[in-house]
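Subgroup meeting minutes
Present: P.N., E.W., G.H.
Scribe: E.W.

1. P.N. recapped why we're keeping a running log of single-chain structure predictions: easier to compare across weeks, and new members can see raw inputs and outputs side by side.
2. G.H. added today's entry (140 aa).
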Amino acid sequence: MKFTEREMTVAVDVVGKTLHAAKRPPWRRGDADAEWEQLKPIEKYHHRAAAGEMILGPLVALPERPTIGARPEFTDQELASAAEESTRNLMEHRKPGAWERLSAKKRKVLVDSTVAFVRIGINAMPIRQDPDALIVPDHL
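Output recorded in log:
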């Protein structure tokens, strides 16, 4: 699917924050968002890079859904097939035969977690606007 640069940036940023919050120990005090804001830029970059590697492939592999005024919606099967295809390609690119060496249970866990993160990214994307209808705010 064709997403705008802004949509993908928002998705990667939110999934990066989610990855950061997920690795925090449960007994840690404080707000995960406040801790995210206090991270050094290079630490944020590492989380965003991991998030991008995980979700950008499946986002691009999703079928085209031209929606205006809403976020695109996908079925569980569409998300799972996009996640499986992209995860398989990523693993095979890094180490040939790695996908086949995984057990069926590990493959399912990997695909399911990728689907969950892709959903988080899609739900965080801004509402799509009609690119052909130029809307000028009143204050301009």
